[in-house]
Design goal:
Layout (H helix, E strand, L loop, with lengths): L8 H7 L3 H7 L2 E2 L5 E2 L1 H6 L7 H39 L14 E4 H4 E3 L11 E6 L3 E4 H5 L12 E4 L3 E4 L10 E4 L5 E4 L4 E5 L5 H9 L4 H7 L14 H4 L3 E4 L2 H39 L10
Helix pairs in contact: 4-10, 7-10
Length: 299
């Protein structure tokens, strides 16, 4: 690909990560085992600055790589700490200062109300779906369009702080997952979800964390009548679902635990935003430094 010129390995490593190079490399040849067409790749011209500038560009991008790697490691450590906190605080293994006494155990139906409201026809509601890893997300954001079709009129109407249980199993949540609507005032979700509202007897954020920590998994495993249905959903009877048992500490302790866990979660989210910013910065640098649009000043 490079003839009669010296090429720095670190620079070349960054060059093959660019969008342009990947596009070229994706032009494959062969039918049984498609692979990059070397003849095409090797003949495609790419910018190659003088060797000292190559080295300097690689050093600059390496600085961002190191910062990204370090921040990712910090996030991983924080996530592990958060997981440990959830395991301890949500199971009564560790108590916050000022709280004692055994937790009560009650049924879902004692503190949650099943939601039967359907689409009221108002177009102000966001049409959402549940992603096992991201929670409630807009269908337009996930699929680039609303996929509800004619079933939209039967979608369940959620208000802020309501919960929805997606009975679809995934690697992250094999028994399905429960997420709370937090960011917006209302949303429409598939009618196959089991949806419920918190009552004034609880601090809902405590149960948001408890559900995310797989709190119901063992009980759900017992009430699932068979494997996935034809639509890929687990067979969970709604009446059985609301008979499931949940811990019931005092509302003061619920609030204290939720605040600790939310603070820890917010720290991770802030670090993740910083990581996303670093990645965007690196992407921008690659676009200008590896194309010659901007040149570095160096001695």
């Amino acid at each position: 690909m490079v003839k009669n010129k010296k090429c720095n390995n670190d620079y070349l490593f960054r060059l093959i990560q660019t969008h342009k190079f990947i596009q070229v490399a994706n032009v494959s040849s062969g039918s049984k085992m498609p692979r990059a067409d070397w003849n095409y790749v090797s003949s495609f011209p790419f910018p190659l600055p003088p060797l000292p500038e190559q080295i300097r560009i690689a050093e600059v991008l390496g600085t961002w790589d190191k910062a990204i790697s370090n921040l990712q490691a910090t996030i991983t450590q924080k996530e592990l700490l958060n997981k440990w906190l959830m395991q301890q605080l949500l199971t009564e293994k560790k108590r916050l200062k000022g709280f004692s006494g055994e937790w009560e155990e009650i049924r879902m139906k004692d503190v949650f109300k099943r939601i039967d409201k359907v689409n009221d026809g108002d177009d102000k509601h966001s049409v959402m779906t549940i992603s096992a890893k991201k929670g409630l997300v807009s269908q337009e954001d996930k699929f680039d369009r609303v996929i509800a079709g004619d079933s939209l009129k039967k979608y369940t109407l959620l208000n802020k702080n309501d919960f929805a249980y997606n009975k679809g199993n995934s690697k992250t949540y094999q028994m399905g997952c429960i997420y709370q609507l937090e960011e917006i005032e209302s949303a429409l979700v598939p009618f196959v979800y089991i949806c419920f509202s918190p009552t004034e007897k609880i601090y809902s954020a405590f149960y948001k964390h408890w559900f995310l920590a797989h709190g119901l998994d063992r009980q759900l495993n017992r009430i699932i009548t068979s494997g996935a249905r034809g639509d890929g959903l687990l067979n969970v009877n709604s009446d059985d679902f609301f008979k499931l048992k949940i811990p019931y500490p005092t509302i003061e302790e619920q609030t204290a635990i939720a605040n600790v866990l939310q603070t820890a979660s917010n720290e991770v989210q802030l670090l993740q935003k910083q990581l996303d910013k670093l990645r965007e910065q690196k992407k921008g640098l690659m676009q200008v430094l590896l194309t010659g649009k901007k040149r570095l000043i160096f001695k």
